[in-house]
Records
---
Amino acid sequence: MIKKITDGIHWTGKTDWEIRTFHGEEYSTHRGSSYNSYIVEDEKTVLIDTVWKPFGKEFVHQLRKGGYLEKIDFVIANHAEIDHSGALPELMREIPDVPVYCTKNGVKSLTGHYHQDWNFIPVKTGDRLNLGKNEIIFIEAPMLHWPDSMFSYLSGSNILFSNDAFGQHYATEHLFNDLVDQAELFQEAVKYYANILTPFSPLVLKKIDELIGLGVPVDMICPSHGVIWRKNPMQIVEQYQKWADNYAENQITLLYDTMWNGTSRLAEAIAEGIRQRRPDITVKLFNLSHSDKNDVITEVFRSKGILVGSPTINRGILTAVAGMMEEIRGLQFKNKSAAAFGTYGWSGESVHRIEDLLKNAGFTVVQEGIKVTWNPDENALSQGRDFGRRFAEAL
């Protein structure tokens, strides 16, 4: 269904209510997602981005039914990732000579995906596309979050088409931010930032400064997933500035896996000690074998300190903990404290292994880890509570 945004501008995307994982199986989408595509009509008509490949035929049919397909003078590919460009082969079979505007890296990526020699027009920051009364101004945004990414700004209407920046994996029948549940919206927005954009936070700050420095009014932000920001659109830009600046709330998160509940009991004792010393701190515990990894990563993002635990197995750690540590390493969190804990029967390498992984991931290990043998007795649990108290003091 094509939906009107404002005069001469329509949403031509797809709301995907059913999708539950994204990037293969890497990102959980509990609330679905959307693939946002936009038509801008002026003296010339431009299509900005498309949709994911499984919806390509539906997308082209929708454009034809709406009377837009034959009118398209230009196609803009803000980002070549296939959730945004997947319908291009289906579309370009119908309009093969229409120019496709993208960055130089976009040409490489689109050609690599589809092996087609379309009429590519490479653009860079400051280049303009005249539509008649208004124009599109291109703004490169490399590594937000791919090398080819860019924004497109529509003068006159003062709309920023931001692609993956400022988006959310969030399916809703409503187009606009002021019409949806605000708790859901910001839960999905922070999860999106934490899991996708965290490694690029310095670039986020730089690009926002560049955008603000342009001095252009922004009356609406149209991302490629989730809702359009029309009410106070700069609120999400301001939130990105906070998230990109070594963000942390007054929270400690414990991550662990357990075999016979010894490590989980130790985790609960440590959490009790934290609460005893710092009742103002929010404490959350996650058994990694039973928890959604992207939700856990979001809580790590929100935390100023984490504790990671595992029993020793085969002189190492349980796979759920190892996998989470690899996810965390890649996200390059900054200015967060950490410590390790675990149980063991006869060798006890897990704590030292976790400490090495934490340091390699950029965390500051603020105290020597705690490890106890077998199933913790009351003395061991008391040591755990003391360990938690000392960790709370160290933050």
Note: The two ends are 51 Å apart (CA to CA).
---
Amino acid sequence: METKRKVPIKKILIVVLIVVLGLAAYLYWGLERGGPERVKKTSEVFGPAVTVVPGVQSPTADRAPAAEDVCKENREKLQALFAYLDRQGYIASRQLKGGSFEHFKSLLARLLDRPPLVQLETDDLMRVLQNKAHFYRVLGKKNTLLLRDIIRKEGDIIESSFAVLYQAMDLQEKCRPDGPALQVSLKDVYPYAVFFLNTLGGSSYLIRRDSRVRMLTQYYCILILDQANRRRLNNLGLDIRPPLDVLMRDLKSAANLARKEEYLDTLKSIRAGY
């Protein structure tokens, strides 16, 4: 994709990690239908507190804690998330060095160090093929299978997980060193947002996920791209409006996202700025 040339967005199809984020988005989970068991499992992982994501209002937004408390809360929720994963048999059996948190930090570092090819992708068939196999090439077979298992098995916590991971990135500049436990810069995450929103390779990953994972990944990638625009970091000039409009249409007919209306309100607010 060239800065001055419009490239058609093809099958805009998913967090997190983050990357965390666009990446996280790929790395993490799918949400099962509602009910007492889903609520119980989410509470077990994250506790009763509501995660407040910028631009996404919660029922307790008027009682949001002070900035320092938000930083501490996010760190504790990240720790709870990975502690929960460590207790799962399919992860414990892999004997990850340093536990799941340290392992995923190392995977994240590798992904950020080797971002996907997001410029002029369709000019070279090899670039398309490399992007379609990006995570396998960077992380290897064992780690790719691990991420696949997490996506399949941890469906109950997808929305909370994506919110916590995105918030960790958003709070980095506001929090002290003892704030969020994951450190990822917007500049480093930006290529993955472009990857999922505007490349054939990124679309091929999303089309293989269920609709919830796909839409959540697109949602947080759009939040990242909006931040990149506001901070003048969208150096590839990707137009946010086409993927945003497509996602809004998809969300309106979605029946499997608990915070669907909040996502739509946030996207409407972003769209009004363009």
Note: The mean pLDDT is 78.
---
Amino acid sequence: MKKHLKGNVYWVGKIDWELKKFHGEEYSTHKGSSYNSYVIQEEKTVLVDTVWLPFAKEFVDNLEAEGILGKLDAIVQNHGEVDHSGALPELLRRRPGLPVYCTANAVKSLKGQYHEDWNFKVVKTGDELDLGNGKKLVFVEARMLHWPDSMFSYLAGEAILFSNDAFGQHYATELLFNDLVDQDELYEECIKYYANILTPFSPLVIAKINEVVGFNLPVDMIATSHGVIWRKDPLQIVTKYAEWAKDYQEDRITILYDSMWGGTRKLAEGIAKGIVEASPTTDVRLHSVGKSDKNDAITDVFRSRAILVGSPTIGAGILSAVAGILEEIKGLKFKGKKAGVFGCYGWSGEGNKVLAENLKAGGFELVGEGLKNLWNPDEAGYAAAVEFGKKIAKA
């Protein structure tokens, strides 16, 4: 179980190959995940984070089998969410009284979830925990990366940044380190993680990166809470975060739609054809949102310079799958992106208006009045969709 990182630092977490959904049913994890926990064994033995609740007993049993449990002097809890703190009740049942170092907000979170008044040691940015042998942990609050209770812990003497959720990804691998895994897979999971979780906090991401860089601390390794540990050029992921946080976009246009009887789907396909005819280098992605994975769709939205959203009118509104993903998109607070709307209707035709209102509320700049088609599109309707796609590409 125990895997060596550097010096007297070891990974003692859990790889979850079977995980397919996270945050309830909210986030898809096609590649599984890991719950990374670390032990530092200097004059003091300190555990950094634990694992998700379903693996609590297995985790603590493993710590005991490795001879770690009885030697622990402290726990550092960088974030109170249950995928990192889930083993605390079992661990502290077997080692009562161990100090738990965390932020003031993490105390609120942990008490609220587990209803226990453990031996909390509240820390803030700049506070230190001396481990002996010339090593110490320095704490840095990282509010809203991605909870108000989050913090980083920096191991001076080894130059390891324990970053918790920041810089991680849901990616199960026994290989542990970033330089050993498929780089395309790795970065697909990294950008998906950022797009779906951290996008609303992009201004705070930039501020925190600037703050940490301003400390002028060497960083030889970034030990995250999910996925790989960054040991080869570890700051590459920090550079990517800085890029993604600045209203990121590629030459990509994403089309999100749902269709009752195929009419709106035909419009979506015609629009895609028109975009490519007008701009052959543009990467066009279509998502039938009632069937597509919503997190993959949102990742494409994050990477796009513009999106198009389509729905037939139903009950003076739009289809529920489209309404649902628009609600998520609004919450992610995208900036600097354009949008257009389209859809079929039979009677009243309010769908486009509802789509436009939602997109404006989500911070998108609307292009044109949109495309409406009465009933099922014929050849002329399809041709109009192609022309609409060309106009969008040029806009």
Note: Residues 74 and 309 are 51 Å apart (CA to CA).
